[in-house]
């Protein structure tokens, strides 16, 4: 009886150790969420100054960390306009089709402190009459100085993106000018975005 008891105890220990080992392996398989910086994303536009803007949008994929030309994009840029790959067309010139389910929730705070995905009800998609990224007001991504004509990204304005395929990313825009000068002036070249982002590939609710 004592021998059988020892055998059962050893078997239970092996099963427990194997289970713990498998759990550790599962934890090791979860990729770390890394903050990355993308510099000088071009966002050219034609028109402006009272004329309708045109030109192709520059489409960006957070999962691929690059500009893409396929339908697998999350956000797209042209001039100061940012759109998401979800919702309906707004009706502007040269606008790409929405083929995904992307949306944006706008939160305030330091980039590093935004750890949780906001409530689903706070996420917005583009619609026929309104952008998910506001063009003006407190939640617009930039301020415009009518005296200096400089566009400045708003500090502490963080955009949490539900990507076109249901994952999540957060990003903050650092600059609208090429090479992200600390103090842009009228000699600075505009329509080049620099931003930080973190991509969560596992559809979890934290970064």
From TrEMBL:
It comes from the Bacteria. It holds the Pfam family HmuY. This is HmuY family protein. It comes from Flavobacterium pygoscelis. The lineage of its organism: Bacteria, Pseudomonadati, Bacteroidota, Flavobacteriia, Flavobacteriales.
């Amino acid at each position: 009886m004592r021998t059988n008891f020892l055998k059962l105890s050893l078997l239970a220990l092996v099963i427990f150790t194997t289970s713990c080992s498998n759990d550790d392996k599962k934890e090791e398989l979860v990729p770390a969420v890394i903050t990355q910086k993308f510099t000088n994303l071009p966002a050219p536009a034609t028109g402006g100054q009272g004329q309708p803007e045109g030109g192709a949008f520059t489409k960006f994929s957070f999962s691929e960390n690059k500009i893409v030309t396929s339908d697998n994009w999350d956000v797209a840029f042209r001039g100061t306009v940012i759109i998401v790959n979800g919702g309906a067309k707004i009706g502007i010139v040269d606008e790409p089709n929405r083929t995904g389910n992307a949306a944006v929730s706008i939160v305030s705070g330091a980039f590093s402190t935004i750890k949780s995905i906001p409530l689903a009800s706070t996420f917005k998609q583009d619609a026929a009459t309104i952008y998910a990224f506001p063009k003006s007001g407190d939640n617009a991504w930039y301020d415009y100085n009518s005296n200096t004509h400089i566009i400045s990204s708003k500090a502490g304005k963080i955009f949490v993106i539900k990507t076109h395929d249901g994952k999540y990313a957060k990003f903050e825009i650092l600059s609208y000018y090429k090479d992200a000068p600390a103090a842009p002036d009228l000699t600075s070249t505009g329509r080049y975005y620099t931003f930080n982002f973190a991509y969560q590939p596992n559809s979890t609710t934290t970064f």
